[in-house]
Design brief:
The chain is an alpha/beta fold and about 300 residues long. The protein contains twelve helices and twelve strands. It has one domain: Inosine-uridine Nucleoside N-ribohydrolase, Chain A (Alpha-Beta Complex). The strands form three sheets. Strands 3-2-1-4-5-6-12-9 form an eight-stranded mixed sheet, with helices on both faces. A two-stranded antiparallel ribbon has the order 7-8. α1 (about 10-20) packs parallel to α11. Bound molecules: beta-D-ribofuranose (BDR) and calcium ion. The site of calcium ion has 8 residues, from loops. Calcium ion binds next to loops.
């Protein structure tokens, strides 16, 4: 059984991704470590607790770093709502967060499940970067790291044109991870754009009378209205859900490229940009496996399954 630790900043698409992991009987989620990102840490922790409660599970939620290494952080409240969960007026969760900090929880999970832990990062990389600063040998105990982040073709989705949100939120943290984690998998914003789910299909799955679908229905309403209005979109782009599909079913990656990727720390439009050495000019070893094409039907099957089952 895969042991999975999820670092996350929920967030509507984080929520769906986490429900997908909870719905997979082949996976044991050992905990949620929480980052500040889409909205402030107090909201993201509360939302993580709500997800665990919705699924009726008993697993720890560890609050992490409250801010990026160098502030000020941007916010994605205009997409995810002021509380990160669509301002749906959800009741307070009854569960309490763990007193163990997310960074300690990452280090501890890697020790306890050495050689068998999969770590997936669905938010800014602050917690993982600090963990790496404390223990640079961490990657030797974690055989698989999957990161949702970056925009390898440079389209980006933030005001700094070339930067994707998770990397742009904390470029220094991303730089530490991209330099020090010898090799990991990346599901980026460009892959996300290429794998949208038509709203009519998603809306249909969201009518399921399961606790997970009910929660997603409530929290996604604002985000979907915003995306439809501002991007005239016919498809929903669920970055974290796509990354989670790859985590749960690696064979869904139909096309991948191994490249050296670094993070730009400077530039009015480029701070937080992921810089890919497409033509191998630097001579640096590939540190990232970039998922370029993912089996769309398999991805949608995972999303539908999680909403109808959970
Ligand atoms: C990423 O940014 C966040 O808003 C989403 O939750 C996702 O992790 C996409 O750029
Ligand atoms: Ca996220």
């Amino acid at each position: 059984m895969t042991k999975l630790l999820i670092d996350t900043d929920p967030g509507v698409d984080d929520a769906l991704a986490i429900l997908m992991a909870f719905a997979d009987p082949a996976v044991e989620v050992v905990g949620l470590t929480v980052a500040a990102g889409n909205v402030g840490l107090h909201h993201t922790v509360r939302n993580a607790l709500r997800l665990v409660e919705t699924a009726g599970l008993d697993l720890p939620v560890h609050p992490g770093c409250p801010a990026p290494i160098l502030p000020p952080p941007p916010s994605a409240a205009f997409v995810h709502g002021e509380d990160g969960f669509g301002d749906a007026g959800l009741p307070e969760p009854a569960r309490r967060a763990s007193s163990v900090h997310a960074v300690d929880a990452i280090l501890e999970a890697a020790r306890r499940h050495a050689g068998e832990l999969t770590l997936v990062c669905l938010g800014p990389l602050t917690n993982l970067a600090v963990a790496l600063m404390i223990d640079p040998t961490l990657p030797s105990r974690v055989p698989r790291l999957v990161v949702m982040g970056g925009a390898v073709d440079g389209r980006g989705n933030t005001e700094r044109i070339k930067a994707e949100f998770n990397i742009g939120f904390d470029p220094e943290a991303a730089d530490i991870v991209f330099r020090r984690w010898p090799h990991f998998e990346l599901v980026d914003w460009e892959a996300t754009l290429a794998h949208g789910i038509p709203f009519d299909r998603l809306d249909d799955w969201l009518t399921a009378e399961t606790p997970g679908a009910r929660l997603m229905r409530a929290i996604a309403e604002k985000r979907h209205a915003w995306v439809r209005a501002h991007r005239s979109a016919t498809h929903s782009h669920l970055a974290d859900a796509l990354a989670m599909a790859v985590v749960l079913e690696p064979a869904l990656v139909a096309e991948a490229e191994e490249r050296h990727v670094s993070v730009s720390l400077v530039g009015e439009h480029t701070r937080g940009m992921t810089v890919v050495d497409w033509t191998c000019r630097t001579g640096l070893a590939a540190n990232v496996r970039i998922a370029r094409r993912i089996d769309q039907a398999g991805f949608e099957r995972r999303v539908e399954g999680a909403l109808r089952a959970g």
